Amino acid sequence: MNYSDFDSFTGLGNTRLMQARFAQCVGEQTEFGMIWIDVDGLIYFNDRFGHAEGDEKLKQIAKLICQNLPDGIDVFRAGVEEFIIILTNLKMAGVVLLAMRICKAVNQEFSHLPPLRRFFSMSDNSYVEVYFPLTVSCGVAFYPEHGVDYSTLYRSAEVAAIRGGKRLYGGVVGVAMNLYSSCFLPSTENKTNDSQI
């Protein structure tokens, strides 16, 4: 084990390990899913309860994510309040269902917290004020349909969550839209479609 590949705060794989895993999956020419997870309104939580309590919630969220995944699936910390999961050997529906399970589990865990006052800014400088407890939102994207490089796939997953309502109320799961009109992998070109998950 190379400790420089792990986040010292959560114990999860760090961005270097995550990008290495992405490159490995691409090199194997396999289709795979990415779940982007972001904590909604953490800045407001920290303002109300303090950064120490916010840090504890981040650790709890990291643990909950891992507890709601099958064994052997790696979870990575991609930013201060962002996590990434790369999933192989699952149909698209299976990846989406896992994202929904994670989102539901984390949101239920913190549903007892007092609602946090959040603000959703509009392009004309007006804003909507909303009140929700601490939640997470998930964006789901798939290689190669939604991106053939790391940054594009990451961005597709992030935009999916935003489009699904993350910024307005959070606690959502969004699925990326196709970027390409026709996309296939050479290793899967001649395979028949299988509708089973």
Question: How are the SSEs placed, and which strands pair?
Answer:
Elements (H helix, E strand, L loop, with lengths): L14 H13 L4 E9 L1 H8 L1 H17 L7 E3 L4 E6 L4 H18 L6 E6 L5 E6 L2 E9 L6 H14 L9 E3 L22
Parallel strand pairs: 6-7
Antiparallel strand pairs: 1-3, 1-6, 2-3, 4-5
Helix pairs in contact: 2-3
Fold and architecture overview:
The protein is an alpha+beta fold and 197 residues long. The chain has a single domain (31-188), classed as Alpha-Beta Plaits (2-Layer Sandwich). The protein is 36% helix and 21% strand. It has 5 helices and 7 strands. The chain has helices spanning 15-27, 42-49, 51-67, 92-109, 150-163; strands spanning 32-40, 75-77, 82-87, 116-121, 127-132, 135-143, 173-175. Strands 2-3-1-6-7 form a 5-stranded mixed sheet, with helices on both faces. Strand 6, helix 5 (150-163) and strand 7 (173-175) form a beta-alpha-beta unit. The chain is globular. The model is unreliable at 188-197 (pLDDT under 50).
Total separate domains = 1
Beta-strand portion reads 15-25%
CATH superfamily: Reverse transcriptase/Diguanylate cyclase domain
Arithmetic mean of pLDDT: 88
Largest sheet: 5 strands, mixed
Secondary structure tally, helices: 5
Please give the share of residues in helix.
25-40%
Listing every helix as H and every strand as E from the N terminus to the C terminus, the arrangement reads HEHHEEHEEEHE
Summary keywords:
197 residues; alpha+beta; Alpha-Beta Plaits; 5-stranded mixed β-sheet; two-stranded antiparallel sheet; 5 helices; 7 strands; 21% strand; disordered C terminus
